Amino acid sequence: MLEALLVEDEPAAMRHLMALLQQHPQVRVQAQAHCLEQAIAAVQASPPDLVFLDLRLGSVHGSALLSMLPETCQVVITTAYRDFAIQAFDAGVRDYLLKPIRPERLSLCLERLLAARSDADANDPGFSDTEGFWLDRSGWRDQIRLDAVLWVVAMGKSSHLQLLDRDPLVLNRLLGEWDGVLPEDQFPRLDRSTIISLAALRTVKRVSRSLTLLLFHGFEQPLAIGPTAARRLKELLANQ
Predict the structure, then answer these.
(1) Residue 160, exposed/middle/buried by CB under 10 A (0-12, 13-18, 19+)?
(2) 115 and 156 together in one domain
């Protein structure tokens, strides 16, 4: 997953780019900026993985933002002007999209960026099996940290993976296939359909005989479990 910042001063161009990116679930737009000041504030608040940068921001040249971005950030220029392509690539940008941006051209751009990201991640010696795992789906590869996993719930032949910082991922994977991926001492199975993170568990609220709600650190939505899972969880907590 790439966290993206869009920097564009034309509302119509911003809407067009947003609409195109909605067709690419591997990219999440974390912020929009309509001027250089907003872009700087967005980068300082949460450094993005990817920036789509308009070169003309009113009277300011968008390239002024380049020196303020982290080295790991990938930059794609979006502009109606061909003249600056050589200078842009010399400055280290990853791609140069001419407006109006064509869907197939954006798809090619993202395919290249994601491939480069996967290669870099695969060669990252700082990421080990004890810290997380790789998740492959829909042609892209994502790095999942163990401390971001809250729970896994089986739904028929698929499973829902709930992470701390995003919507649940629906995966074509049986619950038993998580054995060996999630360490059992940290992620015990409570019943035939539920695995949770003990470290992330914050509150256990018994509502009735048949319903218990689990609350997790940093996450508002509770997880509902049945009596079998509740009994198993009680045993685990008693032995800690």
Answers:
(1) middle
(2) no
Write out pLDDT tens, residues 73-117. Answer: 899 999 988 877 877 777 788 899 999 999 999 999 998 888 776
* DSSP annotation of 54: E
135 domain residue, yes or no: no
Q: What is the DSSP letter of 176?
A: G
| 25 exposure class (CB count in 10 Å sphere: 0-12, 13-18, 19+) | exposed
**Sheet containing strand 149-155, strands side by side:** 169-171, 158-163, 149-155, 194-196, 189-191
133 lies in a domain?
no
Residue 91 lies in a domain: yes
Hey, which residues does 125 pair with through a beta bridge?
A: none
Contact at 8 Å (CB) between 216 and 150? yes
Omega of the bond leading into 100 within 30 degrees of 0 (cis): yes
**Residue 63 exposure: Cα atoms within 13 Å on the Cβ side:** 12
Please tell me the total count of domains within the chain: 2
Does this model's pTM top 0.70? My answer is no
Confidence at 40, pLDDT banded by 50, 70, 90: very high
Q: Which amino acid is at 81?
A: Y
Pair (8, 115) in one structural domain: yes
C-alpha dihedral, 180 to 181 to 182 to 184, nearest 10°? 0
Rounded to 10°, the helix 11-21/103-122 angle is 60
Give the CATH number of the domain where residue 184 resides. 2.40.50.1020
- Backbone phi, psi, residue 99, to 5°: -80, 150
Determine the structural domain holding residue 82 and report its residue range: 2-122
